């Protein structure tokens, strides 16, 4: 029956429906409130549904200060972040039906769907992603709701469902398809995917390994897909079994402590008469798609708006470094490693990359990949950033109070210099203590009236590393999600690595 004043939250029913359709992923059902379950007010419709709050002042303040987009772009950036993410999918390049599927999309669906208005209001409801090779990845402006409800889209929806089920296409966020492309994998490569679940990038890696193989023959390459979470490993297995591959091993370890695997060389490699030596298994390619705060997925997971705070990025920074360093130690000399996150935060990105280069001590290079995938819109990595802790901006580790030193570590800052190192060089007092005027540090933290002013008064640090070679993809660049990617080349053994390898062999 009609829309009585008490049923909705303002606005006509049509307006509400329109809003719901356009903000499909920004609705949540809060924990049920038994006291209101049977009231006439709700009348059974829309009961308990509320929009997610798609804003967070702490988020705005943080990213404005970091300057990840220019002040002029801020409104466009934030507006796109609040919109639902358009769907994207990829054609399995190793499928024998790959060309047929691409032809069907180009010659049939691209034309027949033209008359359907997509919710994004783009002229082409579906289109190939211009930066993905060979028209194999597609962007669709149809929301899940539209696909499910609109009769004329039924054929397209059925096509997507069926081809996805049998492994000919995979639904995957567009930006998440980028890291494997920069890994430069060949069919004979041994690839380690350190944090692999739920497996969309593993699937992509397997596609490359299997590409151009004749049906029935097996490639020489191998993907080892690891994840800490056993349930997510199950998801990964479910996802990758659509590939029907024998070239995948799934492991369940902490990536930062991924075990050294020992392999026997084949007799043909060493001469049939000799006993094959045991050597450490090293990988041609390593993908480090590490756990992160995930704020690049805000469009897909709007509940992150509510949960976001600067401490999330600070908290995962040490683990991200550990995982990346373990990845590098398992990488062959001459091999390539990609480090990626779905976070926009420099403490999870540029700061980690700088620390990898620092610890790598010249054996690792951050590669300039600006000429690869030229149509992918990306921004260079930052050279300077600040750390936010307990409501305070910190420009250098020397500004960290001694009570926070176990949490706010030197590698988080652009110079990577530790407070103690500063003391050694200058032979002076602890600068952090001077800042607190000799008073109680907790008091000093709480009495900070204007954190931005405090940061401005501090000496700004700038990284010496070529961090502009990193890539940050932001949502309004190509109507997608956000991602960060850095590509490394290992020139020689890491400092201390040789000793480690020898020890493994003796064991
Ligand atoms: C960003 S997700 C990976 C997404 C995946 N690469 C994909 O494309 O589908 C990060 C993953 O890291 C896993 N993880 C968290 N801590 C880990 C650790 N210490 N070692 C290995 N995996 C970890 C999480 O379970 C999660 O699946």
Automatic annotation (TrEMBL):
According to the UniProt entry, which residue ranges have a biased composition of type Gly residues?
A: 1-11
Query: Where do Basic and acidic residues bias regions lie?
Result: 21-34
All residue ranges annotated as the SAM-dependent MTase RsmB/NOP-type domain in the record: 77-491
According to the record, the segments passing through the membrane are none
Q: Which GO terms describe its biological process?
A: tRNA methylation
Binding residues annotated for S-adenosyl-L-methionine, in chain numbering: 195-201, 227, 289
Q: Which domain of life is it from?
A: Eukaryota
Q: Which GO terms describe its molecular function?
A: tRNA (cytidine-5-)-methyltransferase activity; tRNA binding
Q: Which residues form the active site?
A: 342
Supply the InterPro entries for this chain: MeTrfase_RsmB-F_NOP2_cat, MeTrfase_RsmB-F_NOP2_dom, RCMT, RCMT_NCL1, RsmB/NOL1/NOP2-like_CS, SAM-dependent_MTases_sf
Kindly give the PROSITE patterns that the UniProt entry links to this protein.
NOL1_NOP2_SUN, SAM_MT_RSMB_NOP
Low complexity bias located where?
37-46
Q: Does the keyword Oxidoreductase apply?
A: no
- Which keywords describe this protein according to UniProt? Methyltransferase, Nucleus, RNA-binding, S-adenosyl-L-methionine, Transferase, tRNA processing, tRNA-binding
Q: Segment Disordered: which positions?
A: 1-53
Where is the protein found, in the record's own terms? Answer: Nucleus
Question: Which Gene3D superfamilies would you find in this protein's record?
Answer: Vaccinia Virus protein VP39 (3.40.50.150)
A Gene Ontology cellular component where this protein is annotated is:
nucleus
Give the similarity note: Belongs to the class I-like SAM-binding methyltransferase superfamily. RsmB/NOP family.
Q: What is this protein called?
A: SAM-dependent MTase RsmB/NOP-type domain-containing protein
Species, as recorded: Malus baccata (Siberian crab apple)
């Amino acid at each position: 029956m009609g829309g009585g004043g008490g049923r909705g939250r303002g606005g006509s029913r049509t307006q509400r429906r329109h809003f719901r359709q356009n903000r499909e992923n920004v609705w949540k059902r809060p924990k049920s409130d038994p006291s209101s379950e049977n009231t006439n007010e709700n009348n059974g419709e829309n009961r308990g549904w509320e929009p997610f709050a798609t804003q967070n002042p702490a988020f705005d303040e943080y990213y404005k200060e970091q300057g990840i987009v220019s002040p002029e772009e801020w409104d466009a950036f934030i507006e796109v972040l609040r919109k639902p993410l358009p769907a994207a999918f990829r054609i399995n390049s190793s499928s024998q039906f790959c060309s047929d599927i691409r032809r069907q999309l180009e010659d049939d669906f691209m034309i027949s769907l033209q008359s359907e208005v997509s919710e994004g209001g783009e002229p082409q409801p579906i289109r190939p992603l211009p930066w993905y090779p060979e028209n194999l990845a597609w962007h669709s402006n149809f929301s899940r709701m539209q696909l499910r409800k609109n009769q004329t889209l039924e054929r397209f929806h059925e096509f997507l469902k069926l081809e996805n089920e049998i492994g000919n296409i995979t639904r995957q966020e567009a930006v998440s398809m980028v890291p494997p492309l920069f890994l430069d994998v060949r069919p004979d490569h041994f690839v380690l995917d350190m944090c692999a679940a739920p497996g969309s990038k593993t699937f992509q890696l397997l596609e490359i390994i299997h590409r151009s193989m004749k049906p029935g023959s097996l490639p020489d390459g191998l993907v080892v897909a690891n994840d800490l979470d056993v349930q997510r490993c199950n998801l990964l297995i479910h996802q990758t079994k659509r590939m029907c591959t024998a070239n995948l091993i799934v492991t369940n370890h902490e990536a930062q402590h991924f075990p050294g695997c020992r392999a026997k060389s084949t007799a043909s490699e060493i001469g049939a008469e000799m006993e094959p030596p045991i050597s450490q298994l090293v990988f041609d390619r390593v993908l480090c798609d590490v756990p992160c705060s995930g704020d690049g997925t805000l469009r897909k997971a709007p509940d992150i708006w509510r949960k976001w705070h600067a401490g999330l990025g600070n908290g995962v920074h040490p683990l991200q470094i550990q995982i990346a360093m373990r990845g590098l130690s398992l990488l062959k000399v001459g091999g390539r490693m990609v480090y990626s996150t779905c976070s926009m935060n420099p403490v999870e990105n540029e700061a980690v990359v700088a620390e990898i280069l620092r610890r790598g001590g010249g054996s690792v290079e951050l590669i300039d990949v600006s000429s690869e995938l030229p149509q992918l819109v990306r921004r260079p990595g930052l050279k300077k950033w600040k750390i936010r802790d307990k409501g305070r901006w910190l420009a250098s580790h020397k500004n960290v109070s001694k009570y926070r030193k176990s949490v706010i570590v030197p590698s988080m800052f652009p110079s990577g210099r530790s407070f103690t190192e500063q003391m050694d060089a200058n032979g002076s007092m602890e600068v952090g203590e001077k800042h607190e005027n000799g008073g109680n540090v907790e008091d000093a933290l709480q009495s900070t009236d204007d954190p931005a002013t405090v940061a401005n008064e501090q000496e700004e640090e700038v990284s010496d590393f070529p961090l502009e070679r990193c890539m940050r993809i932001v949502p309004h660049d190509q109507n997608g999600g956000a991602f960060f990617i850095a590509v490394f080349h290992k020139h020689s053994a890491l400092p201390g690595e040789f000793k480690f390898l020898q020890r493994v062999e003796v064991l």
